[in-house]
Amino acid sequence: MLCVAAEPGMTFIPGGEYMRGRTHKLPDDDLQWYPEIMKDDRPVKRITVDAFYIDTYEVTSEQYEEFARATRHRVPYHWPQGRIPAGYARKPVANVSWEDASAYAKWAGKRLPTEAEWERAARGLAEGLKYPWGDRNPAKTDARFGAVDGPAETGKFAPNYFGLYDMAGNVWEWCSDYYEKDYYARSPEGNPKGPERGAYRVIRGGSWADVSKYLTCAYRSWARAAERSPNIGFRCVKSLRARPR
């Protein structure tokens, strides 16, 4: 018989099928643009992901500092004298590249989520919801967005169905996948991991600086792997390890 090992600070996401992609319409959908725009989150497709763990909260500056001290890895460039700015210890770390995030994840015995895993975690078990909390348009009590003074401390807003915090807003989150505009049309139905190569990496979830349209579960964006931005951070995942009881 098998049991699931508990992971401190992480939340178990059950495996299964879900409808990945944007089910709601955008104003431009009925226009005959050429080339088509804003449709990289289509076609909607039923896919399967295996069970996994995901960090309940975005990785904070104090967590990243522990990693940087242990490994002598570089710190975000906005840290004065290499130290966390006052008041930022429990805010999500930002100004970290994809390589920085990957290095942290490896040090922690984890990895970055695939785009498919991230969307599964954001959506919960309900099909077709627009935002992590449902179809209702975002309010400032739902997520950190449309701000000018940076992210909030993690966990200040209500969690989603799986009990995850800040899956919308606060900081964009790096995923492991390369970005490709037409990937959904050809991706496998089981555990898609993204294209084999590309110029950009996927980021998901929107940020403190964005308007509400970027906060949907389906919205896809991208950045160069070397980019260090004040509105990009990350959280980690871990593949399920079942052990004999």
Strand-helix topology:
Blueprint (H helix, E strand, L loop, with lengths): L1 E3 L5 E4 L2 E5 L24 E5 L2 E4 L5 H11 L26 H10 L7 H9 L48 E7 L4 H4 L14 E4 L15 E4 L8 E2 L3 E3 L2 E3 L1
Parallel strand pairs: 6-9
Antiparallel strand pairs: 1-11, 2-5, 3-4, 5-10, 6-7, 7-8
What can you see in these coordinates?
The chain is an alpha+beta fold and about 240 residues long. It has one domain (about 1-245): paralog of FGE (formylglycine-generating enzyme) (Alpha-Beta Complex), CATH 3.90.1580.10. Helices cover about 15% and strands about 20% of the residues. The protein contains four helices and eleven strands, in the order E-E-E-E-E-H-H-H-E-H-E-E-E-E-E. The protein has helices spanning about 60-70, 100-105, 115-125, 185; strands spanning about 1-5, 10-15, 15-20, 45-50, 50-55, 170-180, 200-205, 220-225, 230-235, 235-240, 240-245. A four-stranded mixed beta sheet has the order 8-7-6-9. A three-stranded antiparallel beta sheet has the order 2-5-10. The longest helix is centred in the N-terminal third of the chain and has 11 residues, at about 60-70. The radius of gyration is 18 Å and the shape is globular.
> What is the average per-residue confidence, as pLDDT, rounded to a whole number?
92
Q: Quick one: CATH superfamily?
A: paralog of FGE (formylglycine-generating enzyme)
Report the oligomer: single chain
Q: Percent helix among the residues?
A: 10-25%
Give the percentage of residues in beta strands. Answer: 15-25%
Distance between the termini: 6 Å
Counting DSSP H or I runs of 4 or more residues, the number of helices is 4
Give unreliable regions as ranges. Answer: none
Q: What's the CATH first level?
A: Alpha Beta
CATH architectural label: Alpha-Beta Complex
Return the string of H and E elements.
Answer: EEEEEHHHEHEEEEE
Rg computed from alpha carbons, rounded to a whole number of angstroms: 18 Å
Shape: globular
Number of domains: 1
Structural class: alpha+beta
Question: Biggest sheet, open or closed, and with what strands and sense?
Answer: 4 strands, mixed
> Which sequence of strands runs across the widest sheet?
8-7-6-9
Q: What is the tally of beta strands?
A: 11
CATH topology: paralog of FGE (formylglycine-generating enzyme)
